[in-house]
Amino acid sequence: MQALWETFLDQRGTLLTKLVEHLQLSLIALLLALLIAIPLGIWAQNHDRFAGFLLQVTGILQTIPSLALLGLLIPIVGIGTAPSIIALVVYALLPIFQNTYTGLHEIDPAYKEAEEAFGMSKPQRLVKVELPLAMPVILGGVRTAAVLIIGTATLAALVGGGGLGDIIMRGINLNDPTLTLLGALASALLAILFSWFISMFSKWRWQVSVAVLGALVLGFGGYATYQAVAPKPETIVVAGKLGSEPEILINMYKDLIEQADANVNVELKPNFGQTSFLYSALKSDKIDIYPEFTGTVVSSLLKPSKKQAAQIAEGQDPYPIAESLLNKQDLSLGKPMAYNNTYAVVVKKAWAEQNGITKISDLTKLSTPLKAGFDVEFNAREDGYKGIQSKYGVSFTVNTLDSSMRYQALNRGQVQVTDGYSTDSQIRQYHLLALEDDRKLFPVYQGAPLMRTQFAKDHPKLTAALNQLGGKISEADMQEMNYEVNVQGKSASAVAKTYLTKHGLLKEAR
Amino acid sequence: MTKDVLRFEHVVKQFEGTTAVKDLNLTIGDGELFVLVGASGSGKTTTLKMINRLIEPTDGNIYFNDKRLIDTNLRDLRWNIGYVLQQIALFPNMTVAQNIALIPQMKHWSKEQIRETVDEMLTAVDLEPKQYRDRMPAELSGGEQQRVGICRALATKPPMVLMDEPFSALDPISRTSLQDMVLRLHKKMKTTIVFVTHDMNEAMRLGDRIAVMREGVLQQVATPEEIAANPASNFVSDFFASAAPEVLDTPLIELRRFADRSTEAGEAQEGDPLRAILTPLGEGKSVTVACQQGNFKVNATQVMAFLADVAKD
């Protein structure tokens, strides 16, 4: 409970932004669903066969798993809010349509006979009598739809639609259950509030309800129009993968870009998604820049030629290969930073100093085999433990461990060596040392800003600004910054700013 | 009788093979209170609903003021023919005043005129406007609801009003007082009323003329006196006879105007039927009836006076 309260205080700014995003997404979807489903429900009154058909169709749409629906929508409408809203609307259609249809259908025929006998026109019948009589049933459907939408809207985070799902996803990625809980609670609370608000609707006179609804539509419509019409500086969208490290990097990008060009507004999308997702977002113009690793480009995004693959295997720097492959895709990779975020053999710093060890090859000096705790995958990989044995001639007594356990095991002295990533914050946290890979066994994963070639050409100032980071930031720097964000709970933007200022990349008083 | 407002000529109505109305020929005079009476399935309601075209005839013609109904603008026709339903069907989302104002509003009357009409109509049906105007239908008793239903039909003073078994769902006391009210309103407003009922008693009580229907065929059209004196067929005489004993079901309150006021405790209730007190009356005793408007004491002579009055109707 205490932890939850602290997380809440800590994240309240983000929470509010995400809450507003979530509300916006949900309201827009709900309004669109209302605009489609209510007229359809009214129209279906006199078209019984079509009504049955529509009920079937909306029912089938509802059975599509939300995740699958989002996935299916991406190739058609891309990522971001569009697929999220479409998916939400699709889900909301059934309850609203069904209740509008039944609500109107089940009105006592005596009232319909009276309307007819009094010579009321169709619109008069609908507005004066039938809709008000069906209103409680219709609102019941709207309520179901709203609760459904608010819950499902958390999935929008998966396709870059924002909302409270972002907080939940970040909690999962940072392995911070309180953050996940915070996002989930906020979403649940919002659903309850909304449901209450709609139930109030049925207690008001329907004219009041329509007025409130109208005000909401006007408010959001006006806000959206204002946003569309209001003159604003060019917005550049910078996104990052999951975790603290990309978030720190994109905050640096933002600072550097805004320093270089005051007319540019940078919008950050931290924890935007997995690699392939960011890559397609960049290619389809949804985002403009994201930090990518050279190793990732040559190993999973693009396929190097046999010759290139051999060069990489021999330990050559993959940067030029990555760059030339990307250029063929009309993409450009900026200058890489210094640190190499790759596999690392990690030991305790004190122990290393005692034994005079700094490189992996130094381990051959030791007479008794060390106890090692490796993750299953690392243990089996050619560029993992197998490579250590062949390239360095070093063997350990290996226990395989789950990756989440290895640092604790090392810290408690249960093992003497473990595998990790060279910029992990735990290296700093537990006073560990990543040994130098002096025979170049591990593939090189250097980070650099990736953007469309056309974008780079159009924004030479920005490219130059980002290239200032080329050759900067060592592994130790990155470990320290990850530690500050993950363990000390500092904000990524503050950590980024401190680094840039300290290294003279950002002039202090702007 | 004055001129005809409504004329049925060889009207036939068939529903999917069954014939509801067979070759109906009928004229209804201006200002008449015309009652269509018959058992269920006799075609009386179908006949009524053909007048405001809720049901279209299969064959034949209906003339309203010598103009064929199908040549009349449907909306104008319906605005000129008031309608009172058996289910009452006051719109539950509107107040009493809004219900009554429905057609005046569609006709774009001024607010002032509408307000006046609402109050005038409520007063005419013995509902205090101040007290009833802003109530919702659900807050009213069945009898009160149907009074408002009649106000709604009469608000624009249409030349003709159709009433489809309007009192069949009400308790005997409300039914009797509403029947009185219809007679009073009819006398005052001179509106032509076509009234459907299955209750021969009600028909005899209300009708200037009565049309008896059976299985879609008109049996007899005549004044109540003529029907009583010369029933056209055995069916009509049986139907008429079946109604007669119902005088014994008259609620005691009907006797009030023939009786004496009393401060004694009631031995019978105002809603009890006349037959319940026949025994003590036969023994020459008088009976005190508990009544909201003040208890009264009735003896055999006074009951005979009441019966004589009924017979005169």
Automatic annotation (TrEMBL), chain A:
Compartment(s): Cell membrane; Membrane
CDD domains: PBP2_ChoS, TM_PBP2
Residues covered by the ABC transmembrane type-1 domain: 19-202
Chief location: membrane
Pfam family, one: BPD_transp_1
Family membership noted in the UniProt record: In the C-terminal section; belongs to the OsmX family. Belongs to the binding-protein-dependent transport system permease family.
UniProt keyword Iron-sulfur, yes or no: no
Name listed for the protein in its UniProt record: ABC transporter permease/substrate-binding protein
Membrane topology note: Multi-pass membrane protein
TM ranges: 25-46, 67-94, 133-158, 179-198, 204-226
Keywords from the named record: Membrane, Transmembrane, Transmembrane helix, Transport
Record carries keyword Transport: yes
From TrEMBL, chain B:
PROSITE patterns reported for this sequence: ABC_TRANSPORTER_1 (PS00211), ABC_TRANSPORTER_2 (PS50893)
InterPro entries: AAA+_ATPase, ABC_transporter-like_ATP-bd, ABC_transporter-like_CS, P-loop_NTPase
All copies of domain ABC transporter, residue ranges: 6-240
Keyword ATP-binding belongs to the record: yes
UniProtKB keywords: ATP-binding, Nucleotide-binding, Transport
Molecular function GO labels: ATP binding
Alphabetized Pfam families for the sequence: ABC_tran
Entry superkingdom: Bacteria
Protein family: Belongs to the ABC transporter superfamily.
Name this protein carries in UniProt: ABC transporter ATP-binding protein
Species in which this protein is naturally found: Lacticaseibacillus hegangensis
